[in-house]
Amino acid sequence: MSPFGKRSSFEVPCTVDIEQTADSFHAHVILDGDIEIRPGDEVTVHDAPTDIAFGERVVVRRMATVVRAGLIDRLRARLQGYLELTELYEVSFSNGRV
């Protein structure tokens, strides 16, 4: 594989916070340390809880694998993100009459 497509990976501990209540519906993963996740990178949390009942909040410690994107993957992710964002800019100034 060329240096432009080379991917590296490492494991890191993390905190998984999942809540499904009337006030909040979220799932957050907080990696330990000062790890920056960049476009194209992948994070896989091992043995994360996937099913909690309504009204519950679960906070657990798990391990995560971070796979760093190579140069080509990073550029592709940035381009895809830009193109998907521009879809939100579609604006019509017609009055709807044909």
From the structure above, extract its key features.
4-stranded antiparallel β-sheet; 4 strands; alpha+beta; 98 residues
What would a concise description of this structure say?
The chain is α+β, with helices and mostly antiparallel strands and 98 residues long. It contains one helix and four strands; from the N terminus they run ββββα.
* Poorly predicted segments: none
- The secondary-structure element order is EEEEH
Question: Quick one: biggest sheet?
Answer: 4 strands, antiparallel
The gross shape turns out to be flat
Distance between the termini: 54 Å
Overview of this structure, please?
The protein has 98 residues and is α+β, with helices and mostly antiparallel strands. It has one domain. Helices cover 16% and strands 38% of the residues. The protein is built from one helix and four strands; from the N terminus they run E-E-E-E-H. A four-stranded antiparallel sheet has the order 2-1-4-3, with no helix packed on it.
Question: What layout of secondary structure does this protein have?
Answer:
Blueprint: E1 8-20, E2 25-31, E3 42-45, E4 56-68, H1 71-86
